[in-house]
Each structure stands twice: as C-alpha cells, then as structure tokens.
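Narrative of accomplishments. A recurring question from our advisory board has been how the design workflow behaves on a single, concrete structure rather than in aggregate. To address it, we present the structure tokens for one chain from the evaluation set, followed by the sequence designed for it. No filtering or post-editing was applied between the two.
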C-alpha cells in the first residue's frame, strides 16, 4: 500500500515538473533545447520505470496483462521520437529526419486502437456499454469539438507553402486522427458502471490524452511550427499519471475483502 502511494505521488511530482518545464520552454526557446529535451526524456523514462515496477505486482486478478502490454507499447513508442529530438537538439542539426520522427508519433495509434477494441468490445461483461442518454448529450459536443479542431488545423496548413498533394494527404490524415480522438473521448465519457469501471475510465482518459498529444504533435510538424519542446507532450505525462491512478484503483479493489 505504501509503495502504491509512493508511485502515485511520484507520478504527480513528475506531472508538475513536466508542466513547469514546458512553461519554461516558452521563455527560453531554442536556447536551452538540449537540456529541455533531456529533462523531458528523463521524466518519461521515470514514469515508464514506475509503471514497469508497478505492473508485476498487480497479479492476474487485476487489469489484463495483454491490455497493459498494448498500453505500454503505445506510450513506449513515444520515447523513440523524443530520443531522436534530443539528439537533434544537442547536435544542432537534423541527425534524424523530422519525417521519420513524425512517423513514430503516428505509430502510437496502432496499439492505442488495439486497446480501444479490447476495452470496449472484448470486456463488455465487465460493464462496458454505450448509454443512449449519454449519446444524445455528448455527441453534439464532440461534433462541435471536431469541427473547431479541424478548422484550427486545416486553415494554417491550407495557407502554407506545402505542395498541394502533400497538403491534401496531410489534411486527410488529420481528419482521421481527430475522428479517432472523438471516438475515444465518447467511449471514455460513456464507460464504466460503479466502482468496477473506475480503473478503465482512467485508462480511457489516458488514451484520450495520448491521442491529443499525437494530433497536436502532428499538427506542429506538418505546419512547421517547431519549438524547443512541444507543450503537447504534456498530455503524454498526464496519460502516464492516469494509467498509474488506474493501477492504484485496481490494486485497492484487489486487496479489499470480498
């Protein structure tokens, strides 16, 4: 129990540190690019290490191990482009192509979509289902969110110097990303019944954070608006924090007397 509280506390501290780091990056710009990227990489590795220490202690009766493996794959893929960006920052040149880095961010969607399918179609016996009342209230909000997001993403791209064919394919890719984000957000809002649904609710919110981070990072790369570090990556740290909270709730449920 004490170890679980320490992990949650550590995740919270790292989350606050990430927020402070990203705010500081607005003031320093590229001047501290190397140290800022190094700090971001260190924070990600700390949370990944915390998750690695935590998961074996949960046992078979907690969150499905296959589900956690896909989640770990999704968040772990993000480490690769961060390492590449750190190398580029210290080298002062593009050692790794921005296009290659972008591909790794997009690959996050593969394990994320597998997790979505597992959660909402493979675990319905645990109380996962769509609520008609939630659909009528949440769906209009998601439509508005999607329209606003697409407008914010597409307008800068349409007015940029990117070739027309590239712009069309990039805009199509962003439409797919935002649509996937809306689906996950809708599922996160409608998920779970009672105490048993709470760990999976945190997982769903974490997936939403990962998708938001990926969409924003893709937008930044496609329109060329680069900085020393992307505030969008803050959502990745928030996702880690939510995953650890989910593990904590599942752990608490597993030790409660039947």
């Amino acid at each position: 129990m004490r170890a679980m509280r320490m992990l949650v506390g550590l995740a919270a501290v790292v989350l606050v540190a990430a927020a402070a780091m990203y705010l500081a990056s607005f003031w320093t710009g590229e001047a501290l690019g190397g140290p800022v990227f190094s700090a971001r990489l260190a924070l990600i590795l700390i949370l990944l290490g915390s998750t690695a220490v935590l998961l074996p202690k949960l046992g078979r009766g907690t969150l499905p191990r296959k589900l956690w493996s896909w989640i770990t794959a999704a968040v772990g893929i993000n480490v690769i482009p961060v390492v590449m960006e750190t190398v580029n920052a210290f080298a002062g040149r593009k050692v790794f192509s921005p296009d290659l880095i972008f591909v790794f961010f997009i690959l996050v969607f593969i394990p994320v979509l597998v997790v979505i399918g597992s959660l909402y179609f493979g675990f319905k016996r645990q109380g996962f289902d769509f609520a008609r009342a939630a659909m009528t209230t949440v769906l209009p909000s998601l439509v508005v969110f999607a329209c606003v997001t697409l407008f914010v993403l597409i307008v800068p791209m349409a007015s940029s110097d990117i070739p027309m064919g590239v712009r069309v394919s990039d805009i199509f890719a962003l439409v797919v990303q935002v649509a996937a984000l809306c689906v996950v957000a809708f599922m996160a809002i409608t998920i779970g019944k009672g105490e048993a649904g709470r760990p999976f609710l945190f997982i769903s919110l974490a997936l939403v954070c990962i998708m938001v981070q990926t969409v924003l990072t893709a937008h930044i790369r496609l329109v060329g608006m680069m900085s020393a570090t992307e505030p969008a990556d803050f959502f990745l740290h928030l996702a880690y924090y939510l995953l650890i909270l989910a593990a904590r709730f599942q752990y608490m449920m597993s030790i409660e007397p039947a």
